[in-house]
Amino acid sequence: MVVVVASPSPLSLLPSSYSLSFPFPAAFVLLGRRRLRCRPFDSAAASGHLGAISRRLVSITKNPSLRAMGDEVASTSAPPLEEAPNTEGDKTGSVKQLLSKLVKSSLRATFPDLLDIEPLVAASVKFGDYQCNNAMSLWSRIKGSGTNFKNPNSIGQAVARNLPPSDIIESTSVAGPGFVNIILSNRWVSERIHDMLINGIKNWAPALPVKRAVIDFSSPNIAKEMHVGHLRSTIIGDTLARMFEFSNVEVLRRNHVGDWGTQFGMLIEYLFEKFPNWEDVGTQAIGDLQEFYKASKKRFDDDPAFMERAQQAVVKLQGGEAKYRDAWKKICEISRNEFDQVYQRLNVVLEEKGESFYNPYIPSVLEELTSKGLVKESDGARVIFIEGQTIPLIVVKRDGGYNYASTDLAALWYRLNVEKAEWIIYVTDVGQQQHFDMFFSAARMAGWLPDPGEKMFPKTSHVGFGLVLGSDGKRFRTRSSEVVRLGELLDEAKARSKAELVQRLNENGKIGEWTDEELEKTSEAVGYGAVKYADLKNNRLTNYTFSFDQMLNDKGNTAVYLLYAHARICSIIRKSNKDIEELKTIGSISLNHPDERVLGLHLIRFAEIVEEACTNLLPNVLCEYLYNLSEIFTRFYTSCQVVGSPEETSRLLLCQATAVVMRKCFHLLGITPVYKL
């Protein structure tokens, strides 16, 4: 279900002569995206009583994920040199974060004079469950300074000795040049999984270094239908928002729709010309908005007199003339209704603050930038020169009009000053990278953002993504070279999914066990999920080839395979005829078989995978985890009998834990799970 928060544009609330004038602390730039659904307009902001920007520069700590190996291994165990941090009662955060606390305590005890050391902890496969990789970098700092340490290995030995006692760690060893290998306690892993089953997977949410973020995604243009080009921004942005929200970050989902600009003069004038009584005719006057846009554009290009009237219409619209403002609102309303149909099908929630929302703020933003000496005159335009760039950032065009950059400057100011966002993320195609580089540079010049090397907040990030290609390696289009409408693409995904499902059920004789409603819902879940997963499983920076045949394949790394894998786990639990809720309260989990332990370890790493995906803004990291989880479960189920075995209770709980984690992965990816094959 989509929640739509609609509110009037600031322009509809202000008189046409209204001019905002209030001090802006600095400036920024953003590029042509768009966004959707409006929050109520902040009248205090419009009145000019906004506070100075709160920079809240918060230090970030990054734990680089280093994989290392060595050949010398020495077991270590010794009492700590300082009191242990309370990790036993701390159920929140990832395993990596909990171990980092222990390692940090050891580093403080081992090197009390080096207060800037941060623990380098990473999951390991070959030499332990986790590994601390601080020794080599520490040796490079202290060698030759009269230290008692002889080499990196001796540093690793000391770090391992000084680890506080903890139920988390079973044993440690030191390999090669000081790599501290950590083996987790089976009992602790089992209890952590059991605790999740009882108290919910929310307890596994990672701790991120921000409390509020803006994620700017989807961003279609008003009067243009959503097409496959909007698919990646919408899907990637929604997944990032879901992961941040799961991590207890307040996410402002922003859809910066293109609802302002010269094209509206063309559309309004064409509406008036074709339907003088358009107010009485209503929505029927426009009909297919895409065709209406094409017709008005052709008229604009072919008829100079019409072009002149359209340009005058822009002036009247921006001047607040009621007739033109009403027509503009009607066109926007029709577009939003069409957008909403797509968002509802994708189960995506957005809040609109489009270009028109920020328009009243632009003059004061540019005034502030000018007072800081950033805005210069160049060839009749007003620009900001960015060091290292061959072209300037244009903020006012030669004709005096505003552009994407000026709107984006105002939007960024609003997000920093009014919405108090600590991390502002823009999800657009990689083709806009230069604009964002210039935009973020201008912001730093204006003093809004710290230098990126300082690892401080607030900060901005551009989440670029590649193209959706057809089988010919070119942009994905219809046979008639038209862009593929997103609604039609989803229709086909559902239809193909349903056809394959019906065929499968007919072949195994189970079609009679399914109701029409079940067929419809499962076809939607699998079809739409297949489209989303086929996009998200790729590194977003790369292009990917759109293929229904591949994405609807029930073998390999596809949503269909994963959804059916989840349904099979649910079937195992159902066929046991055991009450899983009762088993949670009376049973326990043991990890005695190697494949049980591998599955348990993979389950508890879920939180740090979400943390990594959020930190690097890469949804494919979560997809890889989910696929690996399915493969690991298959190995477990093949080698470990579940129903009827002496370990039935423990293994059913492991099945349930796997299903719970899979469902959370599906949720974060915006995919609806299926429970029945």
From TrEMBL:
InterPro entries in alphabetical order: aa-tRNA-synth_I_CS, Arg-tRNA-ligase, Arg-tRNA-synth_N, Arg-tRNA-synth_N_sf, ArgRS_core, DALR_anticod-bd, Rossmann-like_a/b/a_fold, tRNAsynth_Ia_anticodon-bd
EC number(s) recorded for this UniProt protein: 6.1.1.19
PROSITE patterns: AA_TRNA_LIGASE_I
Residue stretches making up the Arginyl tRNA synthetase N-terminal domain: 97-184
Summary of the function given for this chain in its UniProt record: Forms part of a macromolecular complex that catalyzes the attachment of specific amino acids to cognate tRNAs during protein synthesis.
Family: Belongs to the class-I aminoacyl-tRNA synthetase family.
Protein name as annotated: arginine--tRNA ligase
Organism of provenance: Ananas comosus
